[in-house]
Amino acid sequence: MLHELGKKLCTLAEKYMPEPFTLATIVTFFTYILATTFTPSSTIDVIEYWYKDFWSFLPFSMQMCIILVSGYALSTTNIVKQMICRIACWPNNTVQATFLISFTSIFFALINWGLALIIGAFLARQVAIEGRRKNISLHYPLLGAAGYMGLAAWHGGLSGSAPLLIATQGHFLEKSVGVIPINETLFTPLNIVSSIILLLGVPLVLAALAPREEKDIVEYSGEIEEQTEEQTESNYSIWGMLVGIVGCIYITYHLWIQQKSFDLNSLNFIFIFVGIFLHRNLDNYFNAIRSGVSACAGIILLFPFYAGIKGIMVHSGLVELITNGVVSVASATTLPIYIFISAGVINFFVPSGGGQWIVQGDIIVKSSQQLGASINKTTLAFCYGDQWTNLLQPFWALALLEITGLRAKDIMGYCLAIMLIGIPVFIMLLYMFH
Q1: Is a pLDDT exceeding 80 seen at residue 218?
Q2: Does residue 71 contact residue 268 with C-beta atoms inside 8 Å?
Q3: Closest C-alpha among 142, 126, 122 to residue 134
Q4: What average pLDDT does the segment 73-86 reach?
Q5: d(CA 57, CA 307)
Q6: What confidence category does residue 196 fall into, taking pLDDT thresholds of 50, 70 and 90?
Q7: Interior angle at CA 404, CA 301 and CA 225, nearest 5
Q8: CA-based, 20 to 30 A from 269: which of 213, 247, 259, 358?
Q9: Model confidence at 273, in pLDDT bands (50, 70, 90)?
Q10: Which DSSP string corresponds to 92-133?
């Protein structure tokens, strides 16, 4: 039954799903129409809002490009390639491969979403390559979808933007809610149970979507790289190792001695200097970075458009209009469910978890206080809504698509199936846990 559902949804996605850049322009015009229709903003005002924020994601875009290319360079080191290759050799069919890749992606997402983004993509590709080597038929689009599953679980993990922000001294909502430690959000029974369900349930359901007939299997058709030892005594560089060691010592001091927060910049710093250390030769590392740069094309082009969409949503008042409309019919018990739904909807327009919390956070806090709902729970409801509709938002899939060579429409049918099945599960969890 499930594999038939996956097959039908994949057929629909293949037929109707636009490519990410086309979708970004469609969403831009749709948001423009909503703003001019339902807010007092004039057509010129909305265009101004769009342009005002069009370049606001530039620092974030650079961070994402660095995490992608530094992760790519790290994955090309001998030790990481060997680790991925060993894991990739375990599956003997599509069901096993799908479970392994999605479990690994979600596991790393609960630690850090950036690790999940890179590891999930490279593991999906390597499993497909190993399948070709062993002459095993593996359905590559499903493996790609499995590699993306971490982005549907990240916001309830240790790198979740909203829980980390409200746990930080001086955050923008501190006057309203104070500082809420992560043990009151991420380590509550609700989030622990949710994380376990995601870690085990999603891989099981996704594996059940695997095609049963040989004619439905689409195998990996890319090049199979030969496994070679890249680094030898002739290109060994003590200088490269020294640079890597210095960087690793500093980030250890920064995080553990100074006890600074672990953020995206910290992750990028670690990726760069661990990559330099493992490559040893600085020329090797530079060449690896250069090879990974082409994977940034989608990020460079699409992020400004999504930043513009965010600008329309925020400055026109659309986001407040949508959220207030949802919570106006809620009670203290049902508010988390409505926030889950509204966060999922707004994620299509503001696809950055941290950016979306800045947009929605104040409204969620005020609504919670007015209705007497738990702010800790409504924060988690926001996290679940934001992460869950990533399954139908190709914004975060760009890096995976570039690394795997797949198209958005190749994986979105399976992602949509998981999303539809998971919605009632989240609603039930939010209703049950008080």
Answers
A1: yes
A2: no
A3: 126
A4: 86
A5: 6
A6: very high
A7: 125
A8: 358
A9: very high
A10: -SHHHHHHHHHHHHHHHHTT-HHHHHHHHHHHHHHHHHHHHH
